[in-house]
């Protein structure tokens, strides 16, 4: 016969194992439903065959947003535990992402005349030069005056400014394959990683020891990365007119951001499914996904410690929206929303601002997103540093 204490521990272990198994079953079921939704739509050849339209995607987005908002309110009122709220919010965000992909994928390709541009292309060069030089100069001044002990911040700011300036310092084909361009793109995520390791590395290690926060951060980061790829055209579950009717696998040299990358393109028209992967896409969108995931994990850990996420951590949601503006992601999506809300006349300038490949605003929003994510993560962790004792307590839930 087991002693009372040991028997209680055994019962607690069984109960904990049962809870974990139930959560895994629920998440697996929801994941299967979400993954099966888009292929079902695509397999019928679009909205006409499946009976779905943009309004269905918008409805799914609203359901996801409402579910997330409801769970946040329930958590704040103490009606559900932080852990249950986090799992539910992850599912709600997954529903929102699926609806957004459906909404954008079923939208007709917009066609706008050059006359609908908000300003002429001749403005792009002075805009980029002024913005890039401002970022470089301000980063240098702030680094010398305030960040005297953290020169890495100054270096990151100057690299981001150089990224904006690069297409105009080395224009045309001479810059598309220049080692300097590849160095700038590669140095940015490496330097961001070094800054996080140097400033908040130990604390991030503590946060990621919390299994719930780790799963939540990984899930949110993965879903946001899929969203970025789908809305920027590098991942698609929808058939397109004029696409090859046979399975196609090709490696092409494709311009992404400021340089060309060898890009693996896979098209499976019978599924349908399309994906384009390159080192540049993995570096840029992967960096954004990791930063979003780490911010989400930090917020989740604060919730698990029964702390309220501060205002800075709350900007992670805003940063996610800004991040979606990168690489032409936001142009098609936001312009489609603008068409429904205000008509094509209002949507055209929004579309051109984000989609025109010659516009420096793509790079500005991308780099602003990276800086915002990084700063949000560092500041929020510094303002609420968890302890290893806290991690042990929440891990035992």
Automatic annotation (TrEMBL):
It comes from the Archaea. It comes from Halorubrum trapanicum. Keywords: Membrane, Transmembrane, Transmembrane helix. Coiled coil: none annotated. This is Uncharacterized protein. The chain crosses the membrane at residues 21-43, 55-74, 86-103, 123-145, 152-170, 176-197, 218-237, 273-297, 337-355, 361-381.
């Amino acid at each position: 016969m087991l002693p009372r204490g040991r028997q209680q521990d055994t019962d607690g272990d069984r109960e904990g194992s049962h809870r974990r198994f139930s959560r895994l079953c629920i998440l697996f079921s929801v994941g299967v439903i979400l993954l099966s939704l888009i292929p079902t739509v695509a397999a019928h050849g679009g909205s006409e065959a499946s009976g779905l339209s943009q309004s269905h995607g918008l409805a799914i987005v609203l359901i996801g947003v409402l579910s997330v908002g409801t769970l946040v309110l329930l958590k704040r009122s103490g009606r559900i535990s932080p852990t249950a709220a986090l799992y539910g919010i992850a599912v709600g965000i997954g529903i929102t992402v699926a609806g957004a992909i459906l909404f954008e994928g079923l939208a007709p390709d917009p066609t706008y005349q050059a006359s609908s541009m908000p300003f002429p292309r001749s403005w792009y060069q002075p805009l980029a030069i002024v913005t890039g030089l401002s970022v470089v100069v301000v980063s240098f001044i702030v680094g010398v005056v305030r960040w005297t002990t953290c020169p890495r911040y100054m270096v990151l700011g100057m690299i981001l400014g150089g990224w904006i300036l690069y297409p105009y310092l080395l224009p045309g084909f001479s810059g598309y394959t220049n080692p300097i361009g590849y160095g700038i793109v590669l140095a940015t995520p490496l330097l961001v990683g070094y800054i996080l390791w140097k400033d908040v590395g130990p604390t991030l290690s503590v946060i990621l020891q919390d299994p719930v926060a780790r799963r939540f951060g990984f899930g949110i980061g993965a879903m946001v990365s899929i969203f970025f790829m789908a809305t920027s055209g590098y991942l698609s579950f929808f058939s397109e007119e004029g696409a090859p009717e046979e399975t196609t696998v090709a490696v092409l040299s494709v311009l992404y951001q400021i340089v060309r990358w060898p890009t693996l393109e896979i098209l499976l028209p019978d599924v349908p499914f399309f994906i384009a992967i390159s080192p540049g896409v993995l570096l840029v969108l992967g960096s954004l996904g990791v930063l979003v995931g780490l911010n989400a994990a930090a917020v989740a850990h604060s919730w698990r410690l029964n702390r309220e996420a501060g205002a800075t951590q709350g900007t992670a949601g805003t940063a996610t929206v800004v991040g979606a503006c990168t690489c032409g992601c936001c142009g098609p999506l936001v312009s489609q929303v603008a068409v429904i809300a205000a008509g094509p006349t209002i949507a055209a300038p929004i579309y051109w601002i984000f989609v025109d490949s010659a516009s420096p605003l793509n790079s500005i929003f991308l780099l602003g997103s990276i800086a915002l994510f990084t700063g949000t993560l560092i500041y929020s962790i510094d303002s609420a540093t968890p302890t290893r004792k806290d991690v042990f307590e929440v891990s035992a839930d």
